[in-house]
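Need a sequence for this fold. Nothing fancy.
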């Protein structure tokens, strides 16, 4: 009896009762793969990024052949061109990962088994962040490869190769991971798929459009601090001519990500 009580809840530094941190992460990865809607949203994200970027590459190459100038930074940003559209699919996948368990009631069983809500929440966030990073980088890499045949005849293929492109893809992946973390936070706050996805769409798409329509310099300045506008500055290949610098935009995006993630964490401590 004394041996069991001494070793039971403290099997390792990562233990949560008899469930280790690694076990939680593995469990969340397995659950993610079993959720068809989530998998489809993630796969759709990669497809959108790849298709839109490749189409853009062929379109801009045609502009050059027609004698119309296209800035080199436009070609460097081709891998992220589709992210503006794919962000909704990626964020929705993150929301669904959380809210589906509230809808089915499975969250009560999980919390009763694990007894550490924050550890469960952190495992969900980690798995989705890795998935978002991976699918975004993969989609961008497909663009760099798929657009090369169109850019080679106009001497622009070198703009999507080399270490600069690898660094750009890594930044893209971080933005994709941030979108997923914001989705996880919103899902935990809303606890309902419709409410979480609606809030996500409002934050990433509707509010920036509304703010952009306001004829005021103050509104434009405020718009720079919205999450996806900040992400746009982060993904700008060259130094932004106006608005936030790369460093400031990175801090703004990180603040949004951590803030929404923290709100979700606080919500997780409330009654299930």
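Here you go.
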């Amino acid at each position: 009896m004394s041996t069991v009580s001494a070793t039971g809840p403290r099997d390792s530094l990562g233990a949560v009762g008899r469930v280790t941190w690694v076990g939680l992460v593995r469990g969340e990865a397995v659950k993610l793969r079993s959720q068809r809607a989530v998998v489809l949203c993630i796969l759709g994200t990669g497809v959108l990024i790849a298709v839109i970027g490749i189409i853009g590459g062929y379109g801009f190459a045609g502009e050059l052949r027609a004698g119309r100038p296209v800035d080199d930074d436009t070609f460097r940003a081709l891998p992220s061109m589709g992210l503006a559209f794919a962000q909704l699919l990626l964020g929705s996948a993150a929301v669904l990962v959380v809210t589906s368990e509230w809808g089915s009631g499975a969250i009560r069983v999980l919390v009763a088994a694990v007894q550490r809500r924050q550890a469960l929440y952190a495992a969900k966030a980690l798995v989705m962040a890795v998935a978002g990073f991976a699918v975004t980088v993969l989609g961008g890499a497909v663009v760099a490869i798929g657009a090369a045949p169109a850019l080679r005849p106009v001497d622009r293929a070198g703009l999507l190769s080399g270490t600069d492109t690898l660094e750009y893809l890594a930044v893209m992946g971080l933005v994709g991971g941030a979108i997923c973390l914001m989705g996880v936070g919103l899902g935990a706050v809303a606890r309902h798929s419709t409410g979480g996805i609606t809030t996500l769409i409002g934050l990433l798409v509707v509010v920036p459009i509304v703010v952009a329509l306001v004829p005021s310099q103050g509104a434009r300045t405020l718009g720079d601090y919205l999450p996806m506008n900040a992400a746009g500055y982060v993904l700008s290949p060259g130094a932004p001519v106006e608005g936030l610098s790369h460093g400031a935009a990175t801090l703004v995006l990180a603040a949004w990500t951590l803030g929404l993630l923290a709100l979700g964490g606080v919500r997780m401590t409330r009654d299930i």
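For context: The longest strand covers residues 15-16.
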